[in-house]
Amino acid sequence: MHLRTDFKHLFPGQQANERVYLMFRQHWIVLVSRLAVWFLFLAIYAAVDYSVSRFFPYSLGENARNFIELAKLLYLASLALGLFIIWAMYYLNINIVTNERIVDITQKNLLHNTVSELHLNQIEDVTAETKGMFQTFFNYGNVYIQTAGETNYFEFTKVPRPTHITKVILDLYEQLPPEKKQIKP
User: Fold this and answer.
1) Are residues 159 and 105 in the same domain?
2) Does one domain contain both 163 and 102?
């Protein structure tokens, strides 16, 4: 999690008087778990390549060996593309908390992203959720922000230090002047 206030424009649409208090992505354990699956596919490639070269070295004809080499190249290209997609999806999904709003930039796939924002004066409730042994041990979880706007809630899943994020958001809400806060019925 980065605490940066020294840059002028960190994201599109940032106002001149807006100070960024938090910028965060999903917890690093999410990236590691996706990379573990990627390494599983790499291990499958290595096992199949070893088995074919050890047990069928000369029994295959020239056409079959050419086909196997082509299949190996396509598989390796798919692995490289998969690694790029894993990193891009992790890196491009970012959440930003400023003194005026919360911005959620979500990359749904390589060609589709959404930018959602919530002004602090629309906040009704902020909840941090950490469940399970891994989330407790690695200090990550979900943050739910209930709103008074069109969207019922904002959700940040598997983010680091959810209680800290919740506290910062609530502190920023409390610092709003009373005339900016929405009156709750």
Assistant:
1) yes
2) yes
- Indicate the SS3 state at residue 76: helix
Amino acid sitting at position 82: G
Poorest-pLDDT segment among 39-43, 119-123, 150-154? 150-154
How many beta carbons lie within 10 A of that of residue 93, not counting itself?
Answer: 18
| pTM score | 0.79
Q: Are residues 81 and 40 in the same domain?
A: yes
Q: What digits encode the pLDDT tens for the residues 3-45?
A: 444 555 666 677 778 888 999 999 999 999 999 999 999 999 9
Residue 51's domain spans which residues?
Answer: 32-89
64 and 99 in a single domain? The answer is: no
Cβ contacts of residue 22 below 8 Å, gap of 6+? 1, 2, 3, 95, 96, 97, 165, 168
In terms of Cβ atoms closer than 10 Å to its own Cβ (0-12, 13-18, 19+), residue 86 is middle
